[in-house]
What does this fold into?
Amino acid sequence: MIVAIYNRTYEEPDIPVILNIIKMLENSKIQVVFFKGFYERISAYLNYKETPKLFTGKFDLPPHTDMLFSLGGDGTLLDTVGFVGSSQIPLIGINLGRLGFLAAIPVEEVEDAINSLVRGSYTLEKRTLLHLDSSIPLFDGAPFALNEFTLHRKDSSSMIKIHTYLNGEFLNTYWADGLIVATPTGSTGYSLSCGGPVVFPQTSSFVITPVAPHNLNTRSIIVPDDNVISFEIEGRADHFLCTLDARTETITSNIQLAVKKEAFTIQLVRPDEHNFLNTIRQKLYWGIDRRN
It folds into this structure.
């Protein structure tokens, strides 16, 4: 088995945890491939006689990579989506961060998770992606997102107007600071913090959520994911922000934008003892009395 490891950043207390994860993988006879930037930061703590296999992106991942480990939080795992693209390499998130909806495996359960991988006792969950079509090239040839697409005001404190259409039919004009289109996976992220609903990952839908809307009657709406959602933007400033997950581009109002369901999916690894209901109960503290 070949496992690639990615990490964006870590704190000093994380180093023993990371080294232990690497040791457990190697003790399980798993070949480890490192993200180049991560290896350069952690190599001083490793005792390799020779430099291991490294990768810098999707084009130099070993062709027979069985899995990609993300060590960090949800943002770190979102980075790895661009690495695997349409390759169908499964992703597994080890939570070194705080909340961790996607990076849902805590460090104290890593050994059990690795044993589950070796035994094959895990489930691969297919997650829908968003695809962005634009009249100019954006996002460096990777116009897709696992969590969400957003539009935001940039150079002004004034609200912007976002005229929104479903399959060419007018839906609404959002007077707001911005607009989010989230996948079911992304429904527990930015959209949730702006009042959007939690949507089960298997649901074939998108969630459209305004950011600080002027009209308080304007709420999130769930639409089928076979819709093409297109936009026209107006505002006092000339430039706006367009994002796919954590990646950002600056655009102008004359750029045509539309989002739809991506043709391929991402596979997330879920050990058999983990499921979506357990995750949201734990992360959102459902059923827990916090008054004491």
Residues 148 and 182 are 4 Å apart (CA to CA).
